[in-house]
Automatic annotation (TrEMBL):
Annotated binding of Mg(2+) 2, by residue: 219
Required co-factors: Mg(2+)
Broad class of where this protein is predominantly found: cytoplasm
Taxonomic source organism: Ferroacidibacillus organovorans
Protein name as annotated: Glutamine synthetase
InterPro entries per the UniProt record, alphabetical: Gln_synt_N, Gln_synt_N_sf, Gln_synth/guanido_kin_cat_dom, Gln_synth_cat_dom, Gln_synth_gly_rich_site, Gln_synth_I, Gln_synth_N_conserv_site
Reactions catalysed: L-glutamate + NH4(+) + ATP = L-glutamine + ADP + phosphate + H(+)
All copies of domain GS beta-grasp, residue ranges: 13-97
EC number(s) reported in the record: 6.3.1.2
Compartments where located: Cytoplasm
Binding site for ATP: 206, 222-224, 270-272, 339, 353
Amino acid sequence: MTAEDILNLIKEKQILMVDFRLVDMPGRQHHVTIPAVEVDEDMLTRGVAFDGSSIQGFRGIEESDMVMRPDLDSAYVDAFTAVPTLDLVCDIYEPSGVRYNRDPRFIAQKAETLLKRSGIATDAYFGPELEFFLFDDVKFNSDPSGSFYSIDSSEAHWNTGSSDGPNLAYKIKNKGGYFPVQPTDSQHDIRTEMVLELMNAGIRVERHHHEVASAGQAEINFRFDTLTKVADTVMLYKYIVRNVARKDGKVATFMPKPLFGDNGSGMHVHQSLFKDGVPLFFEEGAYGNMSEMAMHYIGGILYHAPALLAFSTPSTNSFKRLVPGFEAPVNLVFSKGNRSAAVRVPVAAVTPKTARIEFRTPDCTANPYLAFAAMLLAGLDGIKKGIDPGKLGYGPFDKNIYELSAEEKAQIRSVPGSLEEVLSALEDDHEFLLEGGVFDRDFIQTWIELKRTTEIQPLSMRPHPHEFQMYLDL
């Protein structure tokens, strides 16, 4: 779209406010709202000034002036504002007009540019599957006098004996939430409402369903797209899901592990490469009908996985999901069907154009621009270096890993067990991310420092409520 197209859209839809939005390093959206009568072609072209020192991971106060310049193709008429509002996703620039190296969207765009220059492929397609919970009540607090969290859901198994109002039963059993019909699936209608809003926003939705966990775990799948576009879609998806939930009196959370003892929420990411419209991951008759290029891509993902997880599972809560026994993809192997494998090769109803790999370890605390860019770079490194996952001991493992002997299990590598471990792995293994200047050392160092100082250290210094149960009487 052009600036003239946007101004015409503002008139056509009787837009009163225009929202300029950016994404910070961890992956949260921020916005500034401007009356539509003040928006002209010059503003849509040159952008809007903002204080970069107030955005996590961006600038110091001594160099805070920055510019957010809208991508006009991202225009979305907001469904959740009291007055007609147009939302625009922005790229970040220095005052000099140079793109800002810590802008996550810029990193995603550079990854796509690198792919085209490599000659390997012209397009990388990503299809993330986002899982989330819909709760009826969430309380939490953390201060010097104490800390706690409390969540509730009317469909949760712990409410079978609740006496608050008429108890209509049909609760979701622990790990019993996969595909039940109504009335057990009490959230069918709200997910449908979310789907309709996603479709109104131009997102092509494929299906929705209740997920395995109790207490309102859900999944809504949308169609794959190219890297930056699909990262934009993830941000809009989360915005729509959260706001529909809030409108209907619920809380949507994309935390990987909000419930103890039940399945967590992931973001399985399907990936494939094409060159001028020709699929590159298909070879009929090979393992999983995967081409040699696809196998090398898998090799790159698994070889760099310990470092890659610093961007694809980048929270302390991520590693409460990545434990055995909850369909969690904790094993650094590939497989055609094993859902505990980090990489799965889908084989059902696959055609040359739908041949793909599925990286199952990521979750929704990932900044999608950074995570997808890092995955692409790991896969490309595997292709360039001819990394054979079979020769490196990554599989294939098509058996039930939980039923293997102790000797067989000992041969399988697992994902790191904490955020600190994957940050250390990133310190040791990040050259593949520097290819083509997609990431740079400044960004990686800033990311590691940000995670350690704002997430790991604050959590490690606070007493945990469960420690009182374990240690109070010692």
